[in-house]
Write a structure and sequence with these properties.
The complex is a heterodimer of chains A (about 110) and B (about 120). Chain A has about 110 residues and is mostly beta strands. In chain A, about 0% of the residues lie in helices and about 50% in strands. In chain A, strands 2, 4, 5, 6, 9, 10 and 11 form a 7-stranded mixed β-sheet that branches. A 4-stranded antiparallel β-sheet of chain A has the order 1-3-8-7, with no helix packed on it. Chain A is globular. The termini of chain A are far apart. In chain A, about 35% of the residues are buried. Chain B has about 120 residues and is mainly β. Chain B is about 0% helix and about 50% strand. Chain B is globular and about 40 Å long. The chains are: A mainly beta (about 110), B mainly beta (about 120). The interface between A and B is medium-sized, with 24 and 22 residues.
């Protein structure tokens, strides 16, 4: 199985901060990676697919990048609506696997 | 727009069976693969199972293989997850999700249904 190692597990940030979350795959996944946002009690929401493609209606302050087996989600200027938990997921091969999640809270 | 509504969750004893349903609307259901993803209380997301658009191909997480069966009824726009030999560790919110056009990831999610396995 492909392991997805996500860091940090928690992150404290202020409004306007630039935030970066990293996800590392245990093997090559050819950029078959998504990022989801989840708020308490809600279903996840797709932010980015294919490592760097922004889903429709997602604000441009979200971006994704890839370098080998390391993937990054960046929020360029954190907004109040962005306090949530973020997950990466590989869909290169079954079983699909998620990272452990990163919770962004208020600093 | 895409609408997915899960149902069938509840409290069940260990070893028992239960079937979850996911009613789909707002898109051509028979044209999309579908997924089940679960989340144990306070934990992260775990992919459970996927089924192809025509129901002919299924894939499962090792943790549920042999106990869970994913299926679909394209004439009634409904996805199912038949669960048997339930364990306490199966307690979770179960989400159904539409695949983004046979890509492998979920682009639309239901609101989830809670399964509690407890004696």
């Amino acid at each position: 199985d492909i392991q997805m190692t996500q860091s940090p597990s928690t992150l404290s940030a202020s409004i306007g901060d630039r935030v970066t979350i990293t996800c590392r795959a245990s093997q090559n996944i050819n950029k078959w990676l998504t990022w989801y946002q989840q708020k308490p009690g809600k279903a996840p929401r797709l932010l980015i697919y294919r490592a760097s493609s922004l889903e429709t209606w997602i604000p441009s302050r979200f971006s994704g990048s890839a370098s080998g087996t390391e993937f990054t989600l960046t929020i360029s200027s954190l907004q109040p609506d962005d306090y949530a938990t973020y997950y990466c997921q590989q869909y290169h091969s079954y079983p699909y696997t998620f990272g452990q999640g990163t919770n962004i809270d208020i600093k | 727009q895409v609408h997915l509504v899960e149902s069938g969750g509840g409290v069940v004893q260990p070893g028992k069976s239960l079937r979850l349903s996911c009613a789909a609307s707002g898109f051509t259901f028979r044209g999309f693969a579908m997924h089940w993803v679960r989340q144990a209380p306070g934990k992260g997301l775990e992919w459970v199972a996927s089924v192809s658009y025509d129901g002919k191909n299924e894939n499962y997480a090792e943790s549920v293989k042999g106990r869970f069966t994913i299926s679909r009824d394209n004439s009634n726009n409904t996805l199912y997850l038949q669960m048997s030999s339930l364990r306490t560790e199966d307690t979770a919110v179960f989400y159904c999700g539409r695949d983004a056009g046979d890509q492998g990831y979920v682009d639309n999610w239901g609101q989830g249904t809670l399964l509690i396995v407890s004696s």
